[in-house]
Design goal:
- It contains 12 helices and 12 strands.
- Helices cover 58% and strands 16% of the residues.
- It has 3 domains: 1-160, no CATH class; 172-243; 249-373, Roll (CBS-domain), CATH 3.10.580.
- The strands form 3 sheets. It has a 5-stranded mixed beta sheet with strand order 1-5-4-3-2. A 4-stranded mixed beta sheet has the order 6-7-8-9. The protein has a 3-stranded mixed beta sheet with strand order 10-11-12.
């Protein structure tokens, strides 16, 4: 599954320059799959020792998640071929997610990036089937290979379901985009298909739960709910992208730059925030920016020490400040603010701060453009 961007979790390495992360939820599914495999191998091969059951369960789980990384890397390699930056791959409770910097620029790119994942899983299924079929020397090897062939085949088929944002939904969007020539309309078609598939999974899951299969039913309903939210969020991203198209930092920044001196105490700074309502200031002196200070900076120091602590002690040095360029797209700035968890950014040009841009300013422009769009279509 490939999605526009933000990466998080525990970093475990880098492949082809792409950082690989484990989301905390991954440990839950890894433990559940390992336990399930250990139980399955115990039932199918009672003659093995308990250590063999556990060892093969762990090794097979690791190989399964290696297969998921291979699936996501397939998306990523094709995306990189089209000069689309892949920011990260994250393993989480529902599998894997490749974070890409932007959507593809053509229907063919969308189709090829999306189809690469299922094809890679089918390739792995074939490889593991050949190991299981032709390598008969070890029961443990053939047992693991059989399960891995089966699960990779299921992974490929499930991802081909035309439910956005699954790979099948993105394949559908690529086809609809090629037919209609309209990316937004194609996204709406794929999102609707994804929502319908998600509702179907939720309905079937609830029905199974009420029929006595509580674990399987609730799990299916939970996956359906996740896909429903993902479909809505993915389409919302498309709407936001189109709404902010052409808007750059210089269009919405304020040229008024709130500044404070380096020697101001935190107590004085808090009073300044209360007086002006500004919660982010450039720390400057001699017409030179030294850093950025926010109200959050003051909260990192005990209140009793505010009157003796200068803002220079808690400011973020300017070379570490998240800043925007004048011509940077507003959508990219908004995504960076969300990823980096900041609400304000200075706009820098030729080493000088030329303005400030806040997340609320971008959201106001977004809201105004959405409202204007509704008025022009009614």
């Amino acid at each position: 599954m490939a999605q526009p961007a933000q990466g998080s979790g525990i970093r475990i390495g880098r492949i082809f320059g792409i950082p690989i992360y484990l989301h905390t939820s991954w440990f839950i599914i890894f433990a559940l799959i390992t336990l399930s495999l250990r139980t399955q191998f115990t039932s199918q091969h009672p003659g093995w020792t308990s250590a063999q059951h556990w060892a093969l369960g762990i090794i097979t789980s690791v190989l399964f998640f290696a297969s998921v990384i291979f699936h996501e890397l397939s998306h990523s390699v094709v995306a990189k071929h089209y000069r689309i930056t892949v920011q990260s791959i994250t393993l989480f409770v529902f599998g894997g997610l490749a974070k890409i910097e932007r959507d593809p620029s053509s229907a063919m790119q969308e189709f090829k990036i999306a189809i690469a994942g299922p094809l890679s899983s089918l390739f792995l299924a074939g490889c593991f089937w050949m190991v299981q079929h032709y390598l008969q020397g070890s029961e443990m090897v053939t047992a693991a290979a059989y399960w891995l062939a089966e699960i990779n085949f299921v992974l490929a088929i499930f991802n081909l379901v035309p439910g956005f944002p699954l790979d099948g939904g993105r394949i559908l969007r690529g086809i609809a985009w090629a037919i209609t020539g309209d990316f937004t309309r194609a996204s709406r078609i794929a999102s609707t298909s994804g929502s319908l598939f998600a509702y179907f999974m939720i309905f079937v899951g609830i029905w199974q739960a009420l029929s006595g299969n509580w674990v399987g039913g609730l799990w299916m309903a939970f996956i359906g709910w996740f896909l429903l939210e993902a479909a809505r969020e993915s389409f919302a991203h498309v709407v936001i992208r189109n709404t902010l198209l052409g808007v750059r930092a210089e269009d919405i920044m304020t040229p008024e730059i709130p500044t404070v001196g380096r020697d101001m105490t935190l107590e004085e700074y808090v009073h300044e925030v209360l007086r002006t309502g500004r919660r982010c200031h450039v720390v400057a002196g001699d017409d030179h920016p030294y850093g950025l200070v926010t109200l959050q900076s003051a909260r990192s120091v005990p209140k009793g020490e505010w009157h003796t602590t200068s803002i220079q002690a808690v400011m973020v040095p300017f070379d570490r400040v998240h800043s925007a360029a004048r011509d940077e797209p507003a959508l990219r700035i908004l995504e960076r603010m969300q990823t980096e968890d900041v609400n304000q950014m200075p706009v820098v040009s030729e080493g000088r701060v030329v303005g400030m841009i806040g997340r609320d300013a971008i959201l106001r422009v977004l809201q105004a453009r959405l409202q204007a769009g509704r008025l022009t279509t009614t």
